[in-house]
Structure formats: structure tokens, C-alpha cells
Amino acid sequence: MSSRRPHTRRPAPAATARRPGRRHRETATHLRVRVTPYGDRLLVRVSGEIDIDSAPLLRSALDTALDHGAPRVDVDMRGVTFCDSTALHVLLRARTKAAQSRVGLALAPGDRVRRILAITNTAHLFAPLAVPLRP
């Protein structure tokens, strides 16, 4: 008998392997954020995955929306397919900034966002956003 370890076959690296230093840019493409005005409000539509790599994109969009001067910012997160604690941190930060700026902030959470808000008992901190939204 041979004393060699049995060979374990490992999958070949994917043809689209990430290069070091480009991780943030490539991962952030899994998150889509669109800001559109409607009436005197701004609507921020968020879809895709929010994690530590893509959260800066969401944070930047919310900061821009809150600094725009609109009296209210509505955030539609029904298209979010994954979120972790960084998403919650971004939302709580935006809530604080909105309160300091006297801007209304309303949230339409999807299932994933609703779950993290329920687990952390923070759902009551956000005004609910009526759906369906048009723009």
C-alpha cells in the first residue's frame, strides 16, 4: 500500500477570477442603486446584494439623496436579495443624518431587509413606505 494521501480533486479556478485590488469594484456590481426624483421627494431604489464590499455604494447614494435638499427621501429595498449587518449600519447612519438634516426618511424593506430589522429590533426606527411606487 502506498503511504500517499488520496488525491482530492479541486475545482479549477474560474475563468473570471478576480484580480487583487479590484474586488470592491467587481463586487459592487452586484448592487444596483438608482436615485430618481418624483414630486418633491427622491426615490432611492436598491436591488441586489449589500455586504461589506457594496455598502459604500449604498452609503454614497443615500448621502447624496439626503444632501439634495428634498424634504423627503424614500428608500425602496424590495429588490435586495442579500444584506448583512453593514446594510443595517448604512440604514441607521442614514436615519441619523436625515434626522439631523430634518429630512423625512421612509423605507420599503424587502424580505431580507425586513428580517434583519426584525432580528435587531430596529424596524420601528423607520417610517414605512407605502407601495407600490411608480418612478
TrEMBL record:
Protein family (similarity comment): Belongs to the anti-sigma-factor antagonist family.
GO molecular function: anti-sigma factor antagonist activity
Segments of skewed composition (Basic residues): 1-10
Alphabetized Pfam families for the sequence: STAS_2
Domain STAS: start-end pairs: 31-135
Name of the protein this chain belongs to: Anti-sigma factor antagonist
Disordered: region residues: 1-27
